[in-house]
């Protein structure tokens, strides 16, 4: 295992910060940061967490930093059905229901769908059954020819946006399984050299669905101050119509559900 100082230096490099930048942000001396990184000073648990906070280190990785420094982990990772998370999941379910008639999904850090609302169901109707066996991966669902890919009119743009988002995510928090998914489905090919989208935040996903084209864009919601790894690593992706015709499709064709958000996690 690498030392806590080496790990902190790696995180600092990922964030493209100098030792002075980190020291100012954490309200410590640059010399102290240097001594910690070189192993000449053993940081306290509080100092490890202070530096990790300024570096935006995910909670899972903060536990690893603490272990490397000789301390017990501070952040728990609870199963999704743990009673202590029930209030959080009830809040998530309310968000999913409130977003109907438009689709919304809850994703984990590897883009597996944990939960979704009923507005997503019609889009899954013609997906190959093997892609719907838990854990259902959103990236695979969208890009696999057996999934939604044949219905996405601007598939190249969508793939480019996903490539950018996941590459940024891997740069922020490396993960072997997500990296393997990236290499399988998103690694740039010969035709992708230099390809980009003009404005990622407004590029719609265009579906050919129900005899018409539906244009959707998405927003992402996360928990603001989670102290549990499970909550820290989930996000709600909510889809909105990008034009009046798409909005009319959902508002006229959606039947109000009588159940909570649907879980398709393993």
TrEMBL record:
InterPro entries: Cro/C1-type_HTH (IPR001387), Lambda_DNA-bd_dom_sf (IPR010982), MLTR_LBD (IPR041413). Residues 8-62 form the HTH cro/C1-type domain. Transmembrane segments: none annotated. It comes from the Bacteria. Pfam families: HTH_31 (PF13560), MLTR_LBD (PF17765). CDD domains: HTH_XRE. This is Helix-turn-helix domain-containing protein. It comes from Nonomuraea typhae.
């Amino acid at each position: 295992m690498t030392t806590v100082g080496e790990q902190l230096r790696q995180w600092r490099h990922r964030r493209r910060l100098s030792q002075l930048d980190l020291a100012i942000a954490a309200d410590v001396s640059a010399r102290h940061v240097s001594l910690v990184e070189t192993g000449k000073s053993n940081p306290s648990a509080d100092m490890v967490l202070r530096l990790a906070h300024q570096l935006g280190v995910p909670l899972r990785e903060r536990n690893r930093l603490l272990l490397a420094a000789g301390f017990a982990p501070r952040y728990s990772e609870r199963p999704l059905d743990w009673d202590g998370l029930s209030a959080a999941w009830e809040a998530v379910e309310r968000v999913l229901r409130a977003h109907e008639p438009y689709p919304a999904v809850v994703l984990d850090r590897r883009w597996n769908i944990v939960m979704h609302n009923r507005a997503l169901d019609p889009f899954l109707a013609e997906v190959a059954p093997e892609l719907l066996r838990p854990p259902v991966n959103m990236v695979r669902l969208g890009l696999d020819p057996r999934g939604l890919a044949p219905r996405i009119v601007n598939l190249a743009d969508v793939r480019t946006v996903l490539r950018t988002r996941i590459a940024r995510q891997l740069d922020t928090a490396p993960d072997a399984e997500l990296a393997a998914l990236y290499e399988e489905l998103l690694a740039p090919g010969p035709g992708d050299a230099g390809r980009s989208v003009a404005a990622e935040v407004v590029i719609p996903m265009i579906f050919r669905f129900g005899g018409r084209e539906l244009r959707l864009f998405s927003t992402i919601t996360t928990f603001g101050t989670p102290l549990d790894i499970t909550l820290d690593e989930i996000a709600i992706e909510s889809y909105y119509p990008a034009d009046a015709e798409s909005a009319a499709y959902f508002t006229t064709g959606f039947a109000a559900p009588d159940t909570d958000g649907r879980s398709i996690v393993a």
